[in-house]
Amino acid sequence: MKAKKILAGLALVGAIALTTAGCAGGGSGAGGGGNDKVITVGFAQTGSESGWRSANTESMKEAFSEANGFNLIFNAADNKPEAQIAAVRSFINQGVDAIVLAPIVTDGWDDVLKEAKDANIPVILEDRTVSASEDLYASWVGLDFKKEGETAGTWVADNFGKTPTNLVVLEGTTGSSAATDRATGFDDAIKGTDVKLLDSQTGNFTRAEGKTVMEGFLQKYGSQINLLFAHNDDMGLGALDAIKAAGLKPGTDIKIVTIDAVKDGMTALADGEFNYIVECNPLLGDKVAEVVKKVVAGESVDKSYIVEDQAFDQEQAKAALPDRKY
Ligand code: AHR
Fold first, then answer.
1. Is 138 in the same domain as 235?
2. Domain that holds residue 85
3. Which of these, 210, 217, 237, 263, is most buried using a 10 Å CB contact count?
4. Residues lining ligand 1, CB < 6 A?
5. How far does the centroid of ligand 1 lie from the alpha carbon of residue 7, in Å?
């Protein structure tokens, strides 16, 4: 059993090493001696669950390029928290100069973050947050998920608050700050309105699960459903297939509000199949790279940097689409 675990651990280290982009001189750049000032960064990404995630990964890879003075070791954990913890531990063992972590879930980080701290390796969070003590990480660059949920809920309250309306919700990954905080913000905003929650289940931020869960909602509640809130565009896009297959018209028979504003979501909004999208900006790479450079240089940084989001209705989506970067 123990041997199996060790083998699995070695295989993971091997897999991570294989994904090393442009290794400069085989070892930790800034900490590796000589004149090499390259900063070796281990980035523990959640996975590749959504269009948002692809845009975020691309933004990070662009910012942490060799040309910008980095040696990036990239790992995507397929949305498995234990695999992500193992990736961070592997970065510690490799002696990287800094670790960037997009935590899949909020809890469970205390031990490994303490190990990083004991090894003098700074951790910078990007995108989501953790419940661990703030002194275990240097900084966080991310989004205000609660405000995103509130913005979506306010739109619902303004448009349906005084009409009896049956709502279903497709939640993001259970235990992620993105899902928890969006739900809190949304629930607060629709409190006291005539919007009634029929059902709420996780679709894990993916198109496939969004479709499956929406199929289940439609089987159970049929045309009673008036409104869908999906915690991201991808689940909303998956739900479109289920709604059409049930003979209903998305955007008309069932109104749809989502979060992200990736190109596919904005196209559905411009086409009248979604009704409102709250943006979640995935282009965090430049800001994270700037913070990492400062932290590694021993300069002071803020504990958190929040990137602003916008929101779009159908007309605004039509206007924004031609220049949309992701
Ligand atoms: O943490 C941000 C969320 O993660 C995005 O809204 C979702 O699409 C992604 O998977």
1. no
2. 2-143+282-307
3. 210
4. 49-50, 52-53, 127-128, 178, 205, 232, 234, 259-260, 280
5. 32
